[in-house]
Each structure stands twice: as structure tokens, then as C-alpha cells.
């Protein structure tokens, strides 16, 4: 299929600015042609290769093709197991590429080394506005990657959305991120839920610190925490944020309620990537709040 796309000028003309090849299982062989496509400098800004059975070698080919590509704005590699080796190639690419604005590497089995590499390069890259590093394969208890991501947020002034789902973030690591948020004025979307930065083994103290950072950081608007461990202090803190209007109900994935005088948080579906793996072919079935994140960083019509 991808070879057909490369050789068909009429198809490229009809697709105008985007090419969606998700779920076609093109593998590394197809990734070779995808890389060739990127090297041909077609005038498209969006390429979706999610869940195509692309491995480390295919990831390397695509990353290297982006060294010279100056048109692509949004690349989705979601679900392709490029692993740590492929991740390192994409991190190296971001040192060179100055046009890519949104990069989705969620569920690609990134390793500790590549996550740290992304944190390092994003301290200098001021072009990327949205990045998804969900569900890396991390070992150990020292949270080295979270520490580096915290340092990055202190230096980066362009990143708008950051997805860190299932990074096994704990209270010390979250405090590193909170300290950075006191200085960062560009980040609007931080997902610490089990779908983004959620399900990270964060407990009350860290979550309360995160709520406190929202009181001083006026830019941060979307925050997702479902899947972590809520104590009463956490429930009260986020209830107050919502009550005072600092955190809008549509911009989070929790909703406060009270039983026998005690505050609790329940899950709501806002921002839980309702259209992450699939999107309607036309029309808007839901508001932006139901598919927040990268939608906060438009790079083209409906991208």
C-alpha cells in the first residue's frame, strides 16, 4: 500500500496535506518506503503510521529520513515497538529537525536511555509543542527519567502538551515535575493518569503538590490524575481547584463528590483520548475536552 502511495501522484494530490496508513502492518519493509516518501519532500504535514508492526530498524529509517525533511509537522508512531534503539534515533533526529511540532511515540517500548535522551534534547529543541512518551519499559526505583524531565521543563519554553502515562512516577519524581511547573510557562496539558501520567503510583503528598503548582502556574490548564492513589487531602485539594474555577471540569479526568461528609474523586471521560486510536471521518462527535492533548497544538486543519 505505501509503495502505491509513493508512486501515485494523483493519490498524494487528493490527500493534500496528510497520509494515514495506520493498522496496515507494513513492518520494517514498509518503513523503508515511508522513509523514501519523507525524503521526497511531498507537501504533506501529517503522517500516521500507528500500529504497523514497525521495529527498531524501521524506526531508525524513518527517524533518519526526518533529518532533512522540512515539511512534516505531525508524526504518529504509536504502538510500533521501536524500543530503546529506535527511540534514541528519534531523539537524535530532534537535535537536527526544526520543523516537526508533534511526535507521538506512545506504546513503542522506549527504554530509560531514550526517555532521558528525549528530556535532554527537549531542553534545547524549541520547535516540538507536543510529545507522547507513554508506557516506556523502565526498570528500577530511582526515577532517573522523571528527574531529567523535570530539568527539561525548567528550560523548555515551547512544549504545550506532555504525555507521561505509566512512567511509574512516585511522589519524589512528581515533586521534581512540580518544582519545574513553578518556572514553566508554556505547558498547558500534563497527563499523569494511567492513560497518560495516570497510573503512576503517585500518592497524596505528590498529588497535592501538583494541585498547589496550578495556583501559581497560570498557563497549565489540563491535568489528568486518575489511576493514582487518592487520600482525603488529594480529594479536597482537587475539589477546591474545580470549585474556585482554576481547574475546569472539562479539563480533568476526575470529579469530586461527597459521602457522609467526606470528599472523594470519581473518574470522568474528559480528555481520555476518546479519538486516540480512531477518529470520525467527518464532523465533530465530541468537544475538544473529550480528546484533549495534541488537539491543543493545531498544525493544520483538524490536526
Please tell me about this protein's structure.
It is a single chain. Helix content is 35%, strand content 12%. With 303 residues, the protein is an alpha/beta fold. The strands form 2 sheets. An 8-stranded parallel beta sheet has the order 1-2-3-4-5-6-7-8, with no helix packed on it. Strands 9-10 form a two-stranded antiparallel sheet. α3 runs parallel beside α4 and α8 packs parallel to α9. The two termini are 23 Å apart. The model has no long low-confidence stretch (mean pLDDT 85).
List the helices and strands and how they pair.
Layout (H helix, E strand, L loop, with lengths): L1 H6 L1 H7 L2 E3 L6 H13 L6 E3 L7 H10 L8 E3 L6 H11 L8 E3 L7 H11 L7 E3 L11 H12 L5 E3 L7 H11 L7 E3 L12 H13 L5 E3 L7 H12 L10 E6 L2 E6 L36
Helix pairs in contact: 3-4, 4-5, 5-6, 6-7, 7-8, 8-9, 9-10
